[in-house]
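User: Fold this; tokens only.

Assistant: Input:
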Amino acid sequence: MNPKLLIFLVFTLINLNTSAQIEVANDAAKIFPDEKLVLTNSKTHIKYKVDKDENVTATVYEEEEYLALQNGQSFYHSLFYNQYSDIKKFDTDYKVNDTYYQDDNIFHSDIKIKYSEIFLKVYGQKHDVSTTKFYKNIMYLTSAHFMNPYACLNREIVIEVPNGMTLNILPFNMESFDIEESTIKEKKSTKYIYKVKNIEGYSDESNKPGSSHIYPHLLLIPKSVKTKDGYKTLLASTKDLYKWYRSLVKEIGNENESLKKIVSDVTENYDDDKEKVEQ
């Protein structure tokens, strides 16, 4: 191909792409006139899997497409993880930082964060971020939320459950939102798909209730999984939840004998059980 023609075609494609982005930005600005930055598309795909040892794991794939509605937009894209999870992929053109999480100068040794500071110079500029988070223990994958820090034109959540696994998906605070739901049964799994358009971002109002009380989300409760020896119970009842909590408490490593002496010294002058507890 003629080099001049190739250069012409490249510049033509760039101009067409830029024009398309400007058009999307113009439409988004009409829908969200007070926003400086939006997500054009935000997709979360949660995929559960039963490994060869019959343990249930989960992988969360996320794809976000940011779009600037004003010049000079700087923001952070972040992802938290701990000893029960891992970040397998964090794709962006910007530097990715990996450190322990700090909140109001409080250091959290049990929570780590990967984040990237992204800068969009001009109106209509977009940037894609793709991440993969692996959960070694699905007990810590508790919910899927529809809202993001930023308003979003197209939001999608896909939950893929393998055959033989029972997962309760409980919707909360979804009554005021036009969320489209569908189910696709495949050979080895079932996909539960949720879609919503033009959804606002998180409110910055102070002293508001916690997000689980006001924002639409799905509570994920793994009940059981089929194994070669039958069905293995996960969280089928509050009894199972208590059993799991108790197993976590045992890991703390309290020295019961030394604690008994301390408790005995503190309560030795009290006969009533209620008074002992209050001490």
